[in-house]
């Protein structure tokens, strides 16, 4: 079914972590000139497999063959020399070095005197950036780039290594649509040149567009490897979950209650330049029992809007906010919490959780008042709160003292949501609550949102995934460059209309 | 029951505790003078000053910060206490001389500690100065103020029962040990059982997530630095009382012993991990080491080399054991 030659082949790879069998006798192939899409829920073992193939993990059972010869990488450097390059989902670069320095880190070209050859470095870097249509000066610091641009630089770096095998882990998660197109063109070009590509993604439309064959993993095991032509997207999803997948929720309209949140003329100014408005005249209202979606392109100001209402940028903010009809001044998240607001932030690892703390401590962090007895923290009450939350949200864990950092993305997100439910909020802000988590957990979270709304909570739901936001929300407001673009009622939801409204005309 | 024992064994404080026991055992075998009750109280009394400072240092390090000013704050508050005890002060306009009781002197010293700690806290929170730099500045300021206040000479002859707190015994136990134990008990309890204690851990673990959870991060940080200053002041009172004099260069380098105690006790300098109990064990390890090396007649120069290696070794061992966990 595949005509190219096999560059890298893995046979019966097994990898154990304490208490977990992360990979269980997995076979895997990377073929020259073809894209192998690797799909599976979070925790299926995709990253573990790629970490072995790229030399990050060196102790495993089984065999890796490169060009038919058995070989065992002793480290990332050795894998790279064998032509295997990986672009991790979580980018790794030195923020205060410039683009060229990052691209050539550890392999700087030298002048005859043994100094780094700056001119050559920048010239070569520039060439690679041009091929990716990235028009920025190679002297720019990585820190000053947008995430999408940083990702393109990482891709350019991998290409410049002359890789024969390129592993991409969710490469489009922070790219804009146009940047994605450039990446896809690049992938086509690399295929032509005989580079073998592994493409890990949660997004089926990308997989269908790019891949020649697909490898499905579940619970550390290989489910199947098949050419795309033999499968439909629904079938792949089904193979991933191993059960019939309910693609949409049974939507039931809630009767909207009283006004829960009103925002008027909200303006957020840039910290550096007071005349630049990040948010410009945002007004909306939200009823209890309603799920209001906010949709917009990257940088449209969705996250900033939630943060501003939540009191994270008090010095740069003007505008009026009313909760339950009462005007409020929110100058710190603590005041937002007092007024019954809750925010599940976009970046759950950096902003949502204390990874080194237990599930229990994370769950109670925003509502320690509720677990006091005689003014002191009560272990029993805390444990009760945590177990209640684990049960209600279905957090898979051994016990409440397990560290949050040891859980999968979906379970981590549930902890963040659980933390806020403990504060009994009137208004719940969810910023990309399903980003980077597996399909099963996504569905669970969407159901939970509908359930909370039917109990009378007012919910703001921000998401980049249109099908999801359309399935969950009663109303959608689109944002464009920090301003309100358009409002859609449930009956008027169409993908075309919504996307059209967020594009600049 | 077995599960419970297993859980206790996994606590991070167990390893330094075993190291401490091993050291004590080795010293008992090596020296006849180690395992005597005189020497026992000697070690405890000598360690009590470092214990007071280290408890404050633990709070600061748990938030991900550091406090270099503790030694100078010790000197300044000790000098203020001694100065007030020695001569009281005059209100020139009313021509009144006020003499101050022992408790008044202590209160004044602790107030001085709180003010200097507050200055650290303000620098860190309000002006976003990195803790290392902020406390380095305050360390220099406090030392300078000490020199100004004492004019560079020791203040001696305090009287008024001032020496009891540093040299006295109560129920067969030296006073400084009582004080250190009380401080340890109060802080260990509060770190476990109060909201603020939990917030300190959360801020060190992830400051941004703590703020997003509605915690007043700056208030907690300010409080932590003030407490560290106050505890340094208590240590200052102990040192001054013990010597019956306030030395202008008292407490030099004490911050390093305190940091070492916290680190040996298993805390992470990046915050979020560590405990008061661990620090106590760490401080005792340093105390026993100091004492043991003297008893074994090791040259003071070698003592420093050995102490340095012990610090490094403890951190390396700790690194190896935590790596497997995450």
Shape, per Cα inertia axes of chain A: globular
Mean pLDDT of chain A: 85
CATH level-3 fold name of the largest domain in chain A: Rossmann fold
Level-2 CATH architecture of the largest domain in chain A: 3-Layer(aba) Sandwich
Unreliable segments of 5+ consecutive residues of chain A: none
Q: What level of helicity do the residues of chain B show?
A: over 70%
Instruction: Walk across the major sheet of chain A and give the strand order.
Output: 6-7-8-3-9-10
Mean of pLDDT of chain B: 87
The Rg value of chain B, from CA coordinates, equals 20 Å
N-to-C SSE string of chain B, H for helix and E for strand: HHHHEEHHEHEEHHHHEHHH
Strand content of chain A: 25-35%
Beta-strand segment tally of chain B: 6
User: Major sheet of chain B, described briefly?
Assistant: 2 strands, antiparallel
Describe this structure in words.
The complex is a heterodimer of chains A (505) and B (326). Chain A is an alpha/beta fold and 505 residues long. Chain A has 3 domains: 1-83 and 163-243, Rossmann fold (3-Layer(aba) Sandwich); 95-161, no CATH class; 289-301 and 308-313 and 333-502, Rossmann fold (3-Layer(aba) Sandwich), CATH 3.40.50.300. Chain A is built from 17 helices and 22 strands. Chain A has helices at residues 46-53, 76-81, 99-103, 118-131, 147-160, 177-192, 204-210, 233-241, 302-309, 333-338, 348-352, 359-364, 379-393, 409-421, 439-454, 466-472, 495-502, and strands at 6-17, 20-31, 35-39, 61-66, 69-70, 84-87, 165-169, 196-200, 213-218, 221-227, 259-269, 277-287, 291-295, 317-323, 326-328, 341-344, 372-373, 376-377, 427-431, 458-462, 475-480, 483-489. In chain A, a hairpin with a 2-residue loop joins strand 9 (213-218) and strand 10 (221-227). In chain A, helix 4 (118-131) crosses helix 5. The two termini of chain A are 45 Å apart. By secondary structure, chain B is mainly alpha-helical. Chain B has a single domain (36-316), classed as Orthogonal Bundle (ABC transporter involved in vitamin B12 uptake, BtuC), CATH 1.10.3470. Helix content of chain B is 72%, strand content 4%. Chain B has 14 helices and 6 strands. Chain B has helices spanning 2-10, 14-30, 37-62, 70-87, 102-125, 131-150, 164-167, 175-193, 195-205, 207-212, 217-243, 254-264, 276-295, 300-323, and strands at residues 89-91, 96-98, 155-156, 169-170, 173-174, 245-246. In chain B, a hairpin with a 2-residue loop joins strand 4 (169-170) and strand 5. Classes of the chains: A alpha/beta (505), B mainly alpha (326).
């Amino acid at each position: 079914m595949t005509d190219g030659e096999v560059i890298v082949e893995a046979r019966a790879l097994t990898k154990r972590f304490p208490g977990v069998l992360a990979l269980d006798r997995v076979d895997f192939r990377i073929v020259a000139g073809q894209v192998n899409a690797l799909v599976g829920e979070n925790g299926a073992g995709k990253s573990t497999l790629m970490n072995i193939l790229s030399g990050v993990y060196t102790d495993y059972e089984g065999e890796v063959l490169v060009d038919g010869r058995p070989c065992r990488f002793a480290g990332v450097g050795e894998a790279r020399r064998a032509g295997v390059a990986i672009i991790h989902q979580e980018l790794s670069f030195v923020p205060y070095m410039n683009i060229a320095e990052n691209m050539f880190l550890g392999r700087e070209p030298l002048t005859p005197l043994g100094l780094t050859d700056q001119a050559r470095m920048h010239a070569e870097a520039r060439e690679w950036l041009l091929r990716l249509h990235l028009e920025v000066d190679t002297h720019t610091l990585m820190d000053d780039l947008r995430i999408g641009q940083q990702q393109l630089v990482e891709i350019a770096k991998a290409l410049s290594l002359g890789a024969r095998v390129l592993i991409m882990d969710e490469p489009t998660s922070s790219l804009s649509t146009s940047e994605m197109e450039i990446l896809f063109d690049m992938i086509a070009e690399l295929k032509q040149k005989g580079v073998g590509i592994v493409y890990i993604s949660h997004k089926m439309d990308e997989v269908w567009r790019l891949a020649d064959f697909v490898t499905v993993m579940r619970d550390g095991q290989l489910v199947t490897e098949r050419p795309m032509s033999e499968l439909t997207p629904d079938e792949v999803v089904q193979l991933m979950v191993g059960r019939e997948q309910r693609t949409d929720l049974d939507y039931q309209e809630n009767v909207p209650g009283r006004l829960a949140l009103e925002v008027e003329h909200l303006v957020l100014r840039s910290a550096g330049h007071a005349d630049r408005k990040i948010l410009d005249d945002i007004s909306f209202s939200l009823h209890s029992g309603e799920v209001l979606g906010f949709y917009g392109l990257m940088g449209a100001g969705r996250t900033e809007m939630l943060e501003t209402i939540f009191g994270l940028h008090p010095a740069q903010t003007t505008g009026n906010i009313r909760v339950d009809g009462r005007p409020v001044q929110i100058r710190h998240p603590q005041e937002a919490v007092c007024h019954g607001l809750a925010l599940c932030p976009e970046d759950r690892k950096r902003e949502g959780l204390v990874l080194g703390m237990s599930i229990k401590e994370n769950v109670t962090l925003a509502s320690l008042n509720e677990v006091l007895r005689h003014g002191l923290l009560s272990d029993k009450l805390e444990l009760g709160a945590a177990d209640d939350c684990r049960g209600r949200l279905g957090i898979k864990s051994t016990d409440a003292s397990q560290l949050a950092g040891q859980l999968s993305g979906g379970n981590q997100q549930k902890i963040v949501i659980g933390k806020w439910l403990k504060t009994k909020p009137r208004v719940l802000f969810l910023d990309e609550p399903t980003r980077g988590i597996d399909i099963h957990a996504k569905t669970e979270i969407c159901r939970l949102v509908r359930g909370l709304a039917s109990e009378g909570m007012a919910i703001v739901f921000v998401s980049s995934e249109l099908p999801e936001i359309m399935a969950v929300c009663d109303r959608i407001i689109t944002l464009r460059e920090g301003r309100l673009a358009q409002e859609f009622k449930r009956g008027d939801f169409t993908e075309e209309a919504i996307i059209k409204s967020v594009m600049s005309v | 029951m077995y599960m419970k024992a297993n859980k206790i064994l996994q606590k991070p404080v167990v390893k330094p505790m075993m190291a401490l026991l091993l050291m004590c055992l080795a010293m008992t075998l090596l020296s006849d003078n180690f395992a005597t009750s005189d020497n026992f109280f000697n070690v405890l009394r000598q360690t009590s000053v470092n214990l007071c400072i280290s408890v404050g240092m633990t709070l600061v390090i748990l938030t991900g910060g550091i406090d270099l000013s503790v030694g100078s704050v010790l000197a300044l508050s000790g000098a203020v206490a001694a100065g007030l005890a020695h001569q009281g002060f005059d209100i020139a306009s009313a021509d009144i001389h006020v003499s101050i009781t022992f408790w008044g002197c202590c209160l004044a010293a602790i107030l001085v500690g709180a003010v200097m700690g507050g200055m650290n806290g303000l620098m860190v929170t309000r002006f976003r100065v990195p803790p290392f730099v902020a406390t380095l500045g305050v360390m220099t300021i406090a030392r300078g103020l000490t020199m100004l206040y004492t004019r560079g000479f020791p203040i001696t002859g305090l009287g008024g029962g001032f020496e009891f707190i540093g040299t006295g015994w109560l129920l067969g136990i030296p006073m400084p040990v009582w004080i250190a134990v009380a401080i340890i008990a109060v802080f260990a309890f509060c770190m476990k059982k109060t909201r603020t204690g939990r917030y300190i851990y959360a801020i060190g673990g992830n400051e941004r997530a703590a703020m997003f959870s509605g915690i007043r991060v700056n208030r907690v940080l300010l409080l932590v630095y003030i407490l560290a200053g106050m505890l340094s002041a208590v240590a200052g009172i102990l040192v001054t009382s013990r010597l019956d004099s306030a030395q202008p260069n008292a407490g030099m380098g004490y911050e390093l012993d305190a940091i070492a105690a916290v680190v040996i006790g298993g805390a992470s300098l990046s915050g979020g991990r560590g405990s008061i109990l661990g620090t106590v064990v760490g401080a005792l390890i340093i105390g026993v080491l100091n004492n043991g090396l003297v008893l074994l007649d090791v040259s003071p120069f070698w003592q420093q080399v050995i102490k340095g290696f012990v610090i490094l070794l403890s951190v390396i061992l700790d690194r190896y054991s935590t790596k497997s966990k995450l």
